[in-house]
Amino acid sequence: MNKGLDISVVVPLYNEAESLPELVAWIDRVAKANSLTYEIIMVDDGSTDGSWDVVKRLKEEYPSIRGISFMCNYGKSPALYCGFDMAEGDVVFTMDADLQDSPDEIPEMRRMILEEGYDLVSGWKKKRYDPISKRWPSKFFNFTARVMSGIKLHDFNCGLKAYRRKVVKSIEVYGEMHRYIPILAKRAGFKRIGEKVVAHQERKYGVSKFGIERMVKGYLDLISITFMSHFGRSPMYLFGGLGTLMFLFGGVTALWIIVDKIYSQYNGLVWRGVTEQPMFYLALLAIVLGVQLFLAGFLGEMINRRSTDRNSYLIDNRIDK
Ligand code: UDP
Ligand code: MG
Q1: Total domain count for the chain?
Q2: Are 153 and 240 in a shared domain?
């Protein structure tokens, strides 16, 4: 067990064999120049190009390397999640393996965490060396994410980020949620989220691992994460609320149509049969939907109830005896 390790650098990698030697040498150089004790955690996400062999070879030269390799390609989020689990440094960094992020940013980002009190510092690739097909959608995503989360970041998905260790131990990066880690962190109660403009480079070796489908997935993930942030703990507030409104609307309308028909009939006024009025069917539909929504709320609550225990709550401080 490393005691008092300054930094951990978690590197998710999928077929990045060519970049790894340069990346490790660079991180090592920066750490030594700043007298930082460090570990590099290589998470091989099921590479098929011999990346893991490169990691093992590098380990002989750089003992600070640790790592795991997945049986198959699970994705960047699971890779980060498992890397976070292993990390022991006081400040934990994430960095892409493709040399697009610069290890030179490490000391300043670390300082922001330790001295300025940030929980998370996200890189901002202000000047980006990516194709335009990636830059424009990314601008749109960042705008939407900013509006929906209230976190003032320009570049949510930057691979280079620094965290106070407690943050990475408290968040669960699943699915493709690596794009929205700042939102996950905020939801877990870490509100001091900062940003630093970082240098960005063109990919030197290999190819990007995310295609056009990143837009669709990214968008859907943003919707789920927004939903979870607002109603994750109490789904009944959303579904029950909507359900009640629909049920009331349907019930009152149906009742009114029936009462109106009976009243008109008995008083010799012009009347229409209940089932001849389209509005009646809409009212029935609203009643059924209302009940459905209620059921969804109950199911959500039951699932929550079963999956919540004391470990679901993060404890900040504690006084004993
Ligand atoms: N990556 C990964 N698993 C995947 C896809 C990507 O571990 O399924 C890693 C990849 O090796 C790189 C980082 O995640 O270190 C970012 O990927 P990439 O550079 O392809 O993304 P982009 O820069 O195009 O957003
Ligand atoms: Mg990249």
Answers
A1: 2
A2: no
Same domain? For 139 and 259 the reply is: no
Q: How far is CA 264 from CA 119, 254, 267, 269, 270, in A?
A: 68, 15, 5, 5, 6
Q: pLDDT tens, 98-151? A: 999 999 999 999 999 999 999 999 999 999 888 888 888 889 899 999 999 999
Q: Structure pTM?
A: 0.86
Domain closes at, from 207, 231, 255: 231
Rg (CA), the chain: 27
How far, in Å, from the CA of 151 to the mean position of ligand 2? 23
Q: At 161, which helix (H) or strand (E)? A: strand 161-164
Please indicate, yes or no, whether residues 118 and 165 belong to a single structural domain of this protein.
yes
Residues in the chain: 321
Q: How far apart are CA 100 and CA 56, in angstroms?
A: 23
Encoded tokens for 315: 């404890």
Kindly report, residue by residue over 34-72, the tens digit of the pLDDT.
999 999 999 999 999 999 999 999 999 999 999 999 999
In this predicted structure, what is the pLDDT of residue 2?
Answer: 47
**CATH code where residue 110 lies:** 3.90.550.10
Q: Is the distance from the beta carbon of residue 201 to the nearest atom of ligand 1 less than 6 Å?
A: no
Which residue minimizes the CA distance to atom 2 of ligand 1? 76
Spatial separation of the C-alpha atoms in residues 304 and 80, rounded to whole Å: 25
